[in-house]
Protein 1
Amino acid sequence: MKEKPFFIRAEWDEEAHVWVASSDDVPGLVTEESDLEALIDKLKYMIPELLEANGVEITL
């Protein structure tokens, strides 16, 4: 089976002083953190949970 990558956008919100992550590939993904490392750590848990909740099968 060919694996499809999930594209995640991470953008700095200058006004709110936070990193904001969103994705068209992961339904419901919108989150923010004050630094990029914290955002990445948060996404490691959020993405699999959101994919499972939306019935998207992933293979590791």
Note: Strands lie at 9-13, 18-22, 30-33.
Protein 2
Amino acid sequence: MKELLEYIVSQLVDHPEEIRVEERAGDDEVVLEVKVAPSDTGKIIGRQGRIAKALRTVVKAAAVRDGRRVTVDILD
């Protein structure tokens, strides 16, 4: 899931070298935290959070195929 999220985000931002995705595993859930350059934060959130919602939907759909639960957090 981490690689998928990194790839999608790298296609959206101007500074792909500053993308950081950290994976934290919980008891029954994996949390992916995304951090990008300050100037790119708005690009991965989108108007009214539409792009962020789409990112979460795609990653969750991929995770369901593996039988896992994944949450995506976008950090400032």
Note: Residues 50-65 form the longest helix (16 residues).
Protein 3
Amino acid sequence: MLIDVLTPDKKVYSGQALSVVVPGIQGSFEVLNKHAAIISTLGSGEVVIKETASTKTFRIDGGVVEVLDDKVIVLAETIIEE
């Protein structure tokens, strides 16, 4: 599935992945291939993208996630740099 992580300023990540874990307001949840369509608000926490050979992690401070037709768009308010 295709995953895009965006902030109001730029595209932070775009690529194919096996799954993504996002920090929902009620708790973290994982999105896999063929997931049902969903739109959800996000709280502060980690977005963990599992690629075939590696894992990418971004710390966000709120946002929205949209899942539709094997495409996941994470609209993050901010990316917290560590």
Note: The chain has one domain: 2-76.
